[in-house]
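Subject: mismatched residue count in predicted assembly?

I count 954 residues in my input, but I want to confirm that the predicted structure covers every chain. Input:
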Amino acid sequence: MELTLWTYEGPPHVGAMRIASSMEGVHYVLHAPQGDTYADLLFTMIERRGRRPPVTYTTFQARDLGGDTAELVKGHLREAVERFNPEALLVGESCTAELIQDQPGSLASGMGFNMPVVGIELPAYSKKENWGASETFYQLVRGILSKQPSEESGVSHSPAAWKSEGRRPRVNLLGPTLLGFRCRDDILELEKLLNQHGIDVHVVAPLEARPADLMRLPNADLNVCLYPEIAEATCLWLERNYGMPFSKTVPIGVGATKDFLEELHQLLEMPAPNPGEGAEQSKLPWYSQSVDSNYLTGKRVFIFGDGTHAIAAARIADQELGFKVVGLGTYSREMARPVRAAAKELGLEALISDDYLAVEAAMAEAAPELVLGTQMERHSAKRLGIPCAVISTPMHVQDVPARYSPQMGWEGANVIFDSWVHPLMMGLEEHLIGMFRHDFEFVDGHQSHLGHLGGHQSQTEQQQSQAATNPSTQSNADSSSEESPLWTPEGEAELAKIPFFVRGKVRRNTEKYARQAGCRRIDSETVYDAKVHFRA
Amino acid sequence: MGSTTLLKESGPREVFCGLTSIVWLHRRMPDAFFLVVGSRTCAHLIQSAAGVMIFAEPRFGTAILEERDLAGLADAHEELDRVVNDLLARRPEIRTLFLVGSCPSEVIKLDLARVAERLNGQLQGGVRVLNYSGSGIETTFTQGEDGALKAMVPLMPNSNEAQLLLVGTMANAVEDRLKHLFERLGIPSVSSLPPRQSTDLPSVGPGTRVLLTQPYLTDTARELKDRGAEILQAPFPLGAEGSRLWMEAAAKAFGINGSHVATILEPLMVRAQKALSPYKEQLAGKRIFLMPESQLEIPLARFLHRECGMELVEVGVPYLNRDMMQSELELLPHNTQVMEGQHVEKQLDRVREQRPDLVVCGMGLANPLEAEEIATKWSIELIFSPIHGIDQAADLAELFARPLHRRDLLNNQLLVSV
Ligand code: SF4
Ligand code: SF4
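Triage response: the counts match. Full output below for your records.
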C-alpha cells in the first residue's frame, strides 16, 4: 500500500484508452464501474477533443456482483459491436474488474465477431498508464498482424530494399498518441523533414491509424521509434518477427535531430546527410550563439518529466544552450536506466520518483533558475518562485497550444528555444522589478506578464522564512535542538539583495554556517562570510 | 405529483463515482483528511475531477492497493495502519480522518468500519477516524457527500434545544447569507452539517428541524430522523421560488407568523425577479436536456421552467428518491420526462434527435456535444458555484444563459466576417 497524494500517470487502462482513442476504427470495451468514465474528460477537456473516446464502459454495480457479470459483459460487447461496428475490438478491464475475473477478453473471442478481437490484460495493481499504452499498442499490432497469413518475410527483410525496388525509402513513425506531448505537431514536422531527405512516411501509428494500416507496417523499410515509452515494445517485436530495424535516436534538439538523420540514412544505406543542415535549417544554434544569449550561460536548470523528454531536454540544455543542468529525473520507472545514464554523463544522480513532493524538495535543494518539467513541476516552481516551462506530460489544457509547436526536428528546436528562454526572461524582469521596488517610479501593483506570480512568491518566501526561523516547524531533528540564529534587520536587508531564485538556498546556507560558527545573530557580514564559506 | 412521466433506463452510464465529492468536502472542512483506500484509478479520478489546483499539502490522498495487499487481508490491514500512522505523524493538524471505501476495497471486502474502530482505539480521541463508501459500485458523484455526512451523525451531541439544522455543503458566503436571513425571520439557532471545522459538530435531537440544502442526502436524513430530528419537506433552495418555499417551510415549523415572513422575503423576491428578467428573456422558450449526474437535475429543471420559461426536453437523474423529491416533482410541468438511470448511448441518440438548445452534462460529454453544435453546461460547475438562495437566483440563471449568449456572439461574428 502506498500513500499517493497526486499521481503523474493514470492507471494502465487509461494507457489503453490513449491507444484506442488515437486510432480510427477501433472500439474498446472496458469492464469497469461507472466512476471510471471520468477518463473521458482527459481527452475531451485536456486535449479539447470534439469526439468521445471510443470506449464502452460496462459500469457494473454492486448489485450486479451477485449475479452473472459475465452475461452483463457480453451484453455490452454485443451492443457496442452492433452500434459502432469497429474494424478491431479491444477488450479489457480496469482495476475493479480485474478482481472479479470475468475475463472479458476470452468472453469476447468466443462470441463470433467478424473483426479482430484483442483482449488486453493490464495488471492494474502494479503497472501504470504509459506501460498500459505500450502493452496495448504491442498487443494490438501483434493481434492484427497475426491475423495475416504469416509470410516468412521476417528473415528476408532488408532496409535497403527500396533500391532494388526502384522507389523512395519508406519508414513507419511509431509511438505518437493522444495525451502525449505535442505528438501531432511532431509528426507533421517529421513528415516534412523526412520528405526533404527523400524518405516517405509509410504508416503513422497509433495516432490516426486504422487497423488496416497496422497490417501494412511490415511493408516499410524500417520503424522510427518516436516515443520509446509507447513504441519500443512494438518496435522490438517487429524487429524480432519481421526483421525490421528501428531507429533509437529521438529527434528532439538540433544535435539529436542530426544524429537521428544520420542513423536513418545509415540504416537505409543512403549517403550521409549534410552535417551542417541543422545550422542552416534551425535558428536555435544562431540564437544561442548570438551575443544576446550570453546571459544564458551557466543558468541552472532542473529537469523532470517522462524519460524521452527529460533526456532530450538535458542534452539541449547542456550542449545547445550552455545551461548548467543541476537536476535530472523522471517519474517513469521503465525509463529509469537511460535517464540514470544521461544524468551520470552530466555528473548527476538521477531522481527516479513518482512522489511530487520529493521532486519539489529536490528542486528546492538544487536552487535552479529554470525548471523544465510537467504540469506538476510548474506548480512546484511557482510555489518556489522559479520560472518554469512545461516539457512533458502530464499536462494541463494550457499545454496543448492552438499554434503549431512541435518539439521534434528543426522547427521543434526553435519552439524549444523560445519556450524555455521566455520564462527565464520574465523571471529576470520580475527580479528587476523586485530590485527597483523601492524606487519612486515603481508603482505598487504594477506587475510583469508573470501576473500574480510576484505576489505568490513573496508569500511563499514569508512562509519559508517563518518556517526557517521557527524551530518547531523544522523537520530536522538536530536543528530543533539548537536554537536558530536570529536575523538582524541588516542581515535581512542583505539577503533581500540576492536574486529571489537563490534566496531560499542562501538563507538556509547562512543559517547553517551561523550555527556551525556558533554565531547567534546574522548580520550582513555573516551573509558574506557564509557565501565565502560555501564557495570554498 | 403524478403529472410527470417517470421513466427508467439502464445500460452504460457516464457518471462520476462518490469519491468525487471529496473535491468539495475537503475544502469545506480544512481540518479533515480524506484517505481513499483504493487504486491508482481512484487517485486519478479525484485529481482529474479537481482540475489541477493541487496544493503543497493536499487534504486528500489515496492509499493505493498493491499486488501484495490483495494477497492477504491481514497484511492489508497492517499496511493501512502504517499508512495512516505515517500520514498522521506528518500532518498533526488533522482532526478527523475519513477512510473512504472504493470499488476495489469493497470487492476485496476490506472492512473499513473495523479499521476505523481499531484506529480510534489506538488514537484515543486525538484524531477521529470515520469511514464511508465513495465507490462507484455503490454510489454516484454527489452521493459521496451523503456517506460522509451520515458517518458524522453518530458523533453529533444530543440536544433537545429548538434549532434549525441546514444539512449539505454550500458555499460559505451563501451559507452566511442564509443564516442571516433565518435570524431575521426569528429562528433562534441555526447550525450546519457539515460544519466548517470537522470537530465543531452541531447537536441534534427532538427539537431539531432539518432543512436539506442538497437533494442527495437521503441516508443522512434518515439517520438524523433516527436521532429525533424532523426533516422538513420543501423544494430545494435553488431559484427564488424554491428558496422561498424552503425558507418558509422552516418558518412555519418554528411557528413564525406568515406576514412577518412575507415582509422579509417579499422584497428579496421582487429584487430577485428583477435581476432574473434579462436572463429570462434569453432563456424563455429555449429547450433544455439534463443528463443525469449531480442529482440537482430535478430542482434545476423546476427552476429553469418555472422561473426562466425554459422547455424541459428530458430530465435525467442517476437515481430517484420519490419521497425526497416529492415537493419538487409536484412543481414540474405536466408530462415532464424524468428519466432515472442511464443508457448513455441511447440518451445521446435522443439528444441528437431532439436537438435541444442546451444540454447539462458531464465534462466528458461537453466538448463532443459542442462539436455537434449543441451548447452545453457542465453539471460539475453547478456543484462548485454559489447558487443557493433567493439572492443567487439570477446568478444561477446566468450560468445557463452564458453558453447561449456566447453562441450568439460567436455566430454573429462569423456572419460579419463572411
Ligand atoms: S468507480 Fe470505483 S474504482 Fe473507479 S474511481 Fe470510483 S471508486 Fe475508484
Ligand atoms: S492556471 Fe496555473 S496555477 Fe492554475 S492550475 Fe493551471 S498552472 Fe496551476
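The mean pLDDT of chain A is 88. Marking this ticket as 'not a bug'.
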